[in-house]
Amino acid sequence: MQVAVLPEKLVIVEARKLIRDSLLSVFTNVNVFRYVFAASDRFDPIFMMAGSGRTVFLVTGSSYPQIRKTVQQVQTTQHEATIVILDEQFRSGGGMLVRETAAHGYWTFHDTVDKIVDGIIQAANRRQSISPFAGEHLNHSRRKGLQIAPKLLEHPLYKLSKRERQLFHLIAGGKKIEVCAEEMSIARKTACNLREKLMKKFNVKSGTDLVWKAIETGLVDHFHRDESQ
Questions:
Q1: Residue 75: other Cβ atoms inside 10 A
Q2: Mean pLDDT, residues 113-125
Q3: Are strands 129-130 and 105-108 parallel, antiparallel or unpaired?
Q4: 125 CB neighbour count, 10 Å cutoff
Q5: 9-13 and 35-39 strand pairing
Q6: pTM score, two decimals?
Q7: What is the number of H-type helices and E-type strands within the chain?
Q8: Which of 41, 30, 203 is CA-nearest to residue 119?
Q9: How far is 78 from 75, CA to CA, in rounded Å?
């Protein structure tokens, strides 16, 4: 029986700060990897510093060209690293993207954190790591067939109060509840009560799940756009 070797480091490569910080919070709280880093691109000092040793690069992005370019940059500078693609949207390029970039795995925000972590470990042990959503389409040859995607998860964002929305924004950015309370100028207990309401509305059981729900449903990107306006 083969024993899975856990990667020592996970490096998340994502250009957008809010999503980068949120993913960093999610995978740090998983407590599987010894070190978790986040880099904006291959010129980020963290990218080079974290690249030595048994490392997995989790490359995220919102477009095929962007993901492919980042993967190629990782391959050029980190020859021994494992590369796993974490795609914002399930797309036809899932299986093809893995083959064309020689990445070791392909997962999406549609998958659970646990499944993605399992996939990362499989990829680190050089076993094929493909999201179930992409796997069933991997052998399709027609573009039309490959474009079939599961329905995006619906979310009750429009039902949130102003304070719930503000807290959710801060949580999605990976901030601890004490920091959230301070920035909102409310008591910690009030912030905890608001978090409980959010968890019930989104049907999750932890703050980490709330962060993942924000990423999974596109809320992090939504908040990012609101901030820039």
A1: 15
A2: 88
A3: parallel
A4: 16
A5: parallel
A6: 0.68
A7: 12, 6
A8: 30
A9: 5
